[in-house]
Amino acid sequence: MKNVANVNWHEDFIIHLVKVIRPKVYVELGIQRCLLFNRVIDHAEKLIGVDIDKMAGSYMSESPKAQFFHGPTTEFAKKLEADPLEIDLLFIDADHSKEAVLEDFKNYFPFVAPHGLILLHDGHPGSSRMMDPLYCGTAYQAIEELSKQTDAYEMMTIPVSPGLTLCRKRKEQLSWHEKKE
Length: 181
Known about the structure:
This protein has helices at 9-21, 37-40, 73-82, 98-108, 139-146, and strands spanning 25-29, 46-51, 66-70, 87-92, 112-121, 153-158, 164-169. By secondary structure, it is of the alpha/beta class. Helix 3 packs parallel to helix 4 and helix 4 packs across helix 5.
């Protein structure tokens, strides 16, 4: 597959996916200017945007369904431990380093609903230039590592730069075969 000129193609893809699955709870780690987050508002019941930049919250459209958490993703994960929430769709796009992506995946995975989706951005940089920390960083290395451990989830990366990896949390292939806990 070839690289595409539009490095934000993933936003339209995610919006289409959101329209199809209609998540009750959508969490986005790394909202920056809320370009994607604001487009999801009409299609989810509850949305939480997490970012270390306080200004990111000022870009969020006002909605009773949307809330902003200012701080590191690790701090919001601690908040979830105290007040759990079942996440139907999680988008990991904060720190693009391998270590941070692995940590976000590990910290948030327990809160993802069975058969919920985790989307990971920047998993297929189209060139070595795209591996700069301001672009994709080493996120692809985290996805490579996570792809080896698939007993509780399945993963697939769309090989178009900058890449989008889809992960479904599951133990059984069919959601209606999944044992209720």
